[in-house]
Amino acid sequence: LENLEKVAPVYITHFGDTPDKQLSNIANLLNKKAEKEKWDKDYAASSKEAKATLKDAGVANEKAAVIQFYGKEIYVHDAKVFDGLYSGAGFTPTDAAKANKETKAISSEAIPEYAAGADRLFILMPADGNTDSVDEMLKGVWKDIPAVKKNQVYKVDNTKWSDYSAAAQLYQMEDAVKQITGK
């Protein structure tokens, strides 16, 4: 850290701060409060539009779950990581997703319980693009998940969805709407 401080001012975000808190801290640090307020207004407008678009498509009051393939593991995260999907687009986390407050590896056999009640399932795909193991699980151990039965499974960009930032939350919201409605 000392070597970096010799080159330029250094700001370290606090682990656990929400993306909104991180953005507020940086805006305050850079004296960009007006830009942060504009971001908030624009995000609120985008959220309202996303919810309206989904409602027009017959999607309202639905539960969703998100799982991540990373390396050789499957992970679940605190629902706040996917706030763009939940608060932004208006989905409700499944009970297990709501109860989970950490990032943790989970077995493929535990996914049906985690995703129980999910109308929609969002899968952050492996970075290598290999969908074989995902497709195999969707046809096998996950076939009784409501979202799978209804063919409401969405394979999404791992990097863009898992970047815990304000920009990622906007992307999650917009991508969920696009994945579901094509708009």
Automatic annotation (TrEMBL):
Subcellular location: Cell envelope
Primary location class: other
InterPro entries per UniProt: ABC_transptr_periplasmic_BD, Bact_iron-sidero_bind
Range of residues in the leader sequence: none
A GO BP annotation: iron coordination entity transport
SUPFAM superfamilies: Helical backbone' metal receptor
A Pfam family: Peripla_BP_2
Domain Fe/B12 periplasmic-binding, chain residue ranges per copy: 1-183
GO terms for cellular component: outer membrane-bounded periplasmic space
Tree of life domain: Bacteria
Keyword line: Ion transport, Iron, Iron transport, Signal, Transport
Family label: Belongs to the bacterial solute-binding protein 8 family.
Annotated protein name in UniProt: ABC transporter substrate-binding protein
Organism from which the protein derives: Salmonella enterica subsp. salamae
